[in-house]
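Study this:
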Amino acid sequence: MAEAPMSCDCFVSLPPGSRDDHVIFGKNSDRPQNEVQEVAHYPAESHPPGSMLECTYIQIPQVEQTHAVILSKPAWMWGAEMGANDQGVCIGNEAVWTREPVVPGEALLGMDLVRLGLERGDSAWAALTVITGLLEQHGQGGQCKEDPESFSYHNTFLLVDRNEAWVLETAGKLWVAQKVTEGVKNISNQLTIGTEISAEHPELRSTAQAQGWWDGEREFNFSEVFSPENPPARMELAKRRYKGGTELLQQHDGSVTAEVMMSILRDKPSGICMNSGGFCTTGSMVSVLPRDSSLPCIHFFTATPDPSRSIFKPFIFSDCSTPVLRVVSPQFGPDDPVRQQPRFQSQVDRRHDLYKAHQVALNTMETNPDEGLAVYEILRDLELQCLSEISAMLSGEIPGDELGDLFFDCVDTEIKFYQ
């Protein structure tokens, strides 16, 4: 029997797929099982003209103004697996392989592009143009895990704001995009855009024709033309997972809420919540983006592995939010193995406080299931209480500014329960 699919999954529900007049975004980040994912907030900033930005591997010119962002990110890299900005934009990415070869050498990681899109884009479309522009200038590539063994890929993205979503699929510097304005949609580790193309790289079709992948006469189908003839096993296995995610979304079509999205990310039978082949779900995110721009967007993060054994904690952008350092990993400066040449020749302990406490709790669940289950049930009650308060805020019963420190409070409470 084939092993469970190993891939990330991104989901979006737009009205009428959502129960309320909200856009709901969700993602599970499936990464090497011992990799630590931190949740880090970076405020909006102004930058001097001509300044440079140090990404994971390369420097690029900085822009004069960047938006505030909240990111769920592998602690060793500059970029992020998923996140949101203070303009109501959310982005998640997926690994993908295509007929275009992965160019050796270091460039921008797909995760760098997620963060750059959030820092520079004030809408899903604006973030998409940021990402495609940077692809054209700097390309994508580089080692994608904290290990000297080579592992690199191209990327697909789901970009979402209060009004619409965009699926962006790339092959080297080439790209194609599909606009989604209603209903439900998910992506996994494969090309999904066929003939319904909303925007594309100007040289996409001419390149495909020059390579002999498309005859220029039949209808252009991106996924058929650019999918590799012999795809990696994880892409083939992801087809089952993509189908399972689609089925789960369709089961809830018309009634999707934040709680429903969390339940989808926790689903183990489909493989969406996974632990297999040295990979596992290392971080999860759900966002609620009200169509009413007078209401704040709410972003939920686990900051710990396995959402079925973690709780989602809500973050709201606020001018007076307390920094949540207990979900931020230690920094190692120039001594970091990712900064030294050759890279990744040693390992450092990147665990943050919540990650360590959660590890202890998981061990307790294994050795003393009754005690572990009791703690987890209390924490799930806390999650439900937060969801209730968020619902009350969105209906106007509670002022939003009273919930600015909810993420800090939830992290602090979770650690105390584990201890």
Notes: Residues 369-394 form the longest helix (26 residues). The CA atoms of residues 362 and 368 lie 10 Å apart. Confidence is low (pLDDT under 50) at residues 1-5. The chain has one domain: 9-348.
